[in-house]
Structure formats: structure tokens, C-alpha cells
Amino acid sequence: MKKKLLSLLFLVAPFFIFSQEKGLDEKINDAFMPIASWWEGFVLTTVPLGSYNVPFVVLLLVGGATFFTIYFRFPSITKFGTAIRTVRGKYVDIEKHGVDKLYNNDETLGVEDIKDTIRDESAHGEVSHFQALATAVSGTVGLGNIAGVAVAIGLGGPGATFWMIICGLLGMSTKFVECTLGVKYRDVGPDGTVYGGPMYYLSKGLKERGFTTFGKILGVLFAVLCVGASFGGGNAFQSNQAAVQISSLLKLNSGSDGVIIGICLAILVGIVIIGGIKRIAKITEKIVPFMAGIYILASLVIIIANFSDIGLAFTIIFEGAFTPMAGLGGLVGVLIVGFQRAAFSNEAGAGSAAIAHSAVRTKYPASEGVVALLEPFIDTVVICTMTALVIVFFNIDGTNVQSVFNYSAETSSVILNADGRSIGGVDLTSMAFDSVIPHFSYILTIAIVLFAFSTMISWSYYGLQAWKFLFGKTKTADIVYKLLFLVFVVIGAGATLDAVIKFSDAMILALVFPNMIGLFFLYPKVKQEMNRYLNAISIKKEAIEEGAIDVTKHM
């Protein structure tokens, strides 16, 4: 049955390509739009909260993140230092060998051996902490940080930025939980290849709790949604935006430019993803610091150039969060916009990043959990805040906070006070940078292409893991998925399938439902793993202080 399904999908793929060549993208878009609109409406189903209708998925994300933050005693603050030290490799010896072998100490702490899981018997894994973090960050840092912030400000004003930051801080706890579980319940093949992610901790973890059938259903549901999200939001949308930026920069007008750019992107992506997670990690650990460095450096240049307005900018953001201007939907409306855009930006609660983090080399699942909490901090708290400041500086026209922005909630855009034009998304961010750094739009285009490229290769890994969970861990399944993924790179670049993109983005948020259900069942296991890892660190510190062993020889 699996082979038949794979063959059918492979045979259907060329139809999509020929459809684009025949110029049928608009017909496909029109036919698919009702389905996409229904799916988006279903995923974003609202519940009444006072006089507001709040998407249930947002309540689930924020409620779960708040609970985990309190239960684990604010890990975004208390475990931040541990996360930095872990990424830097300070505890690589105990993670590789185990504190019991290094220091002859029994450190089980009641964590039982689970059948058919790898737990601690050996330091399985394929990548380092930094490589896993870079791969996961490359999947979240992208257009959400550049265009998404502008959309949030267009919809909810500068105050939405404040709630994005709060959601990012809360999301750090959710990442900690899901990525710890990702490592704990991962599978390792005979050749050392790691298979992990929510589909595994949903099926295995819930089976352990006595909910075998329920766990299988949630695992399969997550995998199906993840494959769909990888083809759409994690691929077609990214290649489409990259192609648009390249065409705009080079002033290309040919109808086949998108397809040509898509083929070039597909070749580059194919070279990387055929090599598996190890090659993906090697690429992302170089691209992510580079592209984030360029973007952060440019943002700092603008922030320093507007140093005298920093106080005013933060005042605008803070006051807008609690006393929003007329017409923005009130406090709850601004809060919802901020939380929803942050959820799209860092994907905390969606579980996708746990797939990348599962491949780390360690005997202690919680070691990667603490590393993972850095991801929303980098993505939302740092980069999104910098983008927001740049946009606020661009629109400041004096010291009157109430006159800084005009908004168009219908188009998610800002109406410029100077000439009345309405702009939003990447264009607004690009103009904000160009106002201080002339022609920075060219550099921004390069950054957008790199963001899109790194997001595609990361999501190819996420989708492949989900695909193999559904169709088996065979070479055939591997090849079929990668070929289909590359086909959608070309389709995305050469099409204007707005409905597909809309459908795919909603599918990414849909991952929250099965994933968060699993987290609520399994978070006590995370507590056990956290205690076990902290205990191992304490034992190492004591040994160093006592001079009992030269730990450097175990590195």
C-alpha cells in the first residue's frame, strides 16, 4: 500500500509542472481558494472572549506556554545561562560519555528504561548542539521577521510588537518542553540515522501513558500536516518570495523568469538536502550566523543613527500595547495580533523545530531542551524587536505619539504620513532600511533569498521525517519525497498560488493542535529529564572543584 501511494504521488507531480507551463495557475488558484479559505477558517476558529472573538489556536498556544513557564519556574530566565554554556560545549563530556561513567555515580533519578527508545544507552545523534540550533533557527528566522513584523504593526500598531516579545518569551518554555521530548523519544536506525519529532513522542509517549491508539492518531495527524506544511509554507511560499525579490531587483519581466529562478533554487536546494541532516547542519551553521549578522548589523546602524529617538520608540511600543489608538480594536485586539504574528514567526508550540533538535548528539534530552529555548529569543525577542524599531523610527514624525502612524487594518499596512501611500510587508521594511542606508534594499534582497533558502532546506528535513513516519524509512520514500519537494520549489517560484500559500500557512498553525495535546500529557517526563541533566552538571562541578578528575581528557 505504501509503495502504491508513493507511486501515485510521484506520477501526479508532473501534472503540477505542466499546469504552470500551460498558464493554468489562476484557474488552480480559483478552484482551490474555497478549500483554502475553509481550511484557514477552521484552523483559526474563534471563541468569544468578552467582546472579542479570539482564535482558539492562539489561546491554546498562549495558555500552554504560560502554564509551562510557571510549572518549570521561568526557564527563559533561570535556564538561559545553562543554555549558553551547553551550546558552547561546556558539558560535552558528560553528554558524550554520561556522568555515571565519568564519575562512577548513579544518576538515574527514577527515569526508567523505555522499550524501543534509545534513552541514554549511548550518545546517539548526528549533529552538535549549535548545528541543531542553527538548523532550527534557519527554519523559523525568515520572512516572518522581515514582513511579519510590518504586518503586525499594520494590523495592531506598534503595541503589537510588545505582545510579540511577550509571546516569544513564553514560547521559550514551550520549545524547551517539545525539544526535550523530541530527543527522549527519538528512534535511531542501524546506520545511526536519527528519526525524531512530535510524531514519535506523540505515538511513543502516549503509548507509555496507556493511550496507544490515541497516540497513533495524533502522530499520523501531525505527520500529514507536517508534510503539507513542508511543501507549502516551508517551500513554495519561500521560493515564491525569493523569486519575486530577485525579479524585482534585476527588473525581469519575462513570464518564464519565475520558473528559471525556481529551477536554479531547486538545484541548489537539491545539492544540500540530498546529503541529509549532516549536510543541512553544515550549511545552516554557516548561513544562519551570516544572514542574521547582516540583518542585525544593519538594524544596529539604524538604531544608532536614531539613538536620540530610542526612548520615544519604546514609549510608542509600550503605550500602544496598553492604550492602543482609536480604530485598532482595543487592548485585546492588539494583544491577539502580536501573539498570532509571533506564533507564525517562531513556531513555538507547532513542534516542527523538535524534528531538527532530535538529531543532536547527547545522552541527556534536556540538554537540547535548554538549547532550544534560545530559538524564540533569537527569532522573536531580538530580530523581530529590531525590525519593529527600524519601522517605528521610519514613521516617527515628531514627539506626538498619537500622530506617528495611520493604519489600514484591511490591508495590514501602514499609511505613510508624508504622502498618504499605503505600504506593508517586505516593502515597508525595505523602505525603512533604505531611508537610513541608501540602496540597502539590494542587501535585503540577498538576506531574503538566504532566509528563504535556509528555511526551505530546514523544512525539507522536517517534511522528510514526517514522510518516512507515514511511508517507511526506505530509500524509495526518501527519494520520492525529495523529488516532490524540489518540484514544489519550481512550482512556488513560477506560480501565484495564493490559495495554496494561504492553505499551507494555516496548516503550520494546525500542527499546534496535535502537538500541544501531547505536551500536556508528557510534560512530567520533561521535569524528570531536566532534574537528571542538572544533577549531572552538579556532579561535574563538584568533581572539578575537588580536583578528582581531569575532565579535559573526556572532551
From TrEMBL:
Q: Where in the cell is it found?
A: Cell membrane
Which Pfam family is an annotated match for this chain, by its short name? Na_Ala_symp
Question: What keywords tag this UniProt record?
Answer: Cell membrane, Membrane, Symport, Transmembrane, Transmembrane helix, Transport
Q: Where are the transmembrane segments?
A: 52-72, 217-238, 258-275, 287-307, 313-337, 370-396, 440-462, 483-501, 507-523
Gene Ontology CC: one annotated term: plasma membrane
Q: How does it sit in the membrane?
A: Multi-pass membrane protein
Main location per UniProt?
A: membrane
GO molecular function annotations of the record:
amino acid:sodium symporter activity
By its UniProt entry, which Gene3D superfamilies does this protein fall under?
Amino acid/polyamine transporter I
Identify the NCBIfam families for this entry.
agcS
Entry similarity comment: Belongs to the alanine or glycine:cation symporter (AGCS) (TC 2.A.25) family.
Entry protein name? Alanine glycine permease
